[in-house]
Amino acid sequence: MKLIIAIVQDEFTNQVIKDLMAKKYRTTKLSSTGGFLKSGNTTLLIGVDNREVKNVVSIIEESCKSKKVNKGKEELNIGGATIFVLNMEDYKRI
Ligand code: 2BA
Question: Is the CB of 5 under 6 A from ligand 1?
Fold first, then answer.
């Protein structure tokens, strides 16, 4: 199994969760803050079978779009989502 950690811009969170739920994927939503911009974002934890990873990543990609923001004189390109896929040693629901 894999644990997908997706850091998503807040404006896309509701749509992503709705789309994941529609496909019966379980997800946990955590409020988080970007270290660089110090503004709110959302971290989603999604545990899935290995074969589901591609599908989950596609669902996230569909709703999350990158955008440009200004920080001082700098223009930053914030990704729609930052995704980590980790091997999960064990998964239990008790
Ligand atoms: P923030 O840390 O607030 O970063 C927001 C955006 O600022 C980044 O977008 C990137 O365009 C820029 N940025 C971040 N650190 C920078 C630096 N040291 N120098 C110049 N520009 C920098 P994204 O890369 O799309 O990241 C969006 C959010 O995803 C981040 O918010 C952070 O919360 C998370 N993130 C991204 N990469 C990560 C990583 N390797 N580990 C943990 N969290 C990460």
Answer: no
CA–CA separation, 2 vs 13, rounded Å? Answer: 21
* Ligand 1 neighbourhood includes 40 CB (under 6 angstroms): no
Which of 21, 23, 10 lies closest to 78, judged by CA?
A: 10
Record the pTM: 0.94
Q: Give per-residue pLDDT as tens, 42-89.
A: 999 999 999 999 999 999 999 999 999 998 899 999 999 999 999 999
- Please indicate, yes or no, if residue 59 is contained in any of the structural domains: yes
Expressed as residue numbers, the domain containing 28 is 2-87
Q: Are 42 and 30 in contact (CB under 8 A)?
A: yes
DSSP-derived 3-state class of residue 72? coil
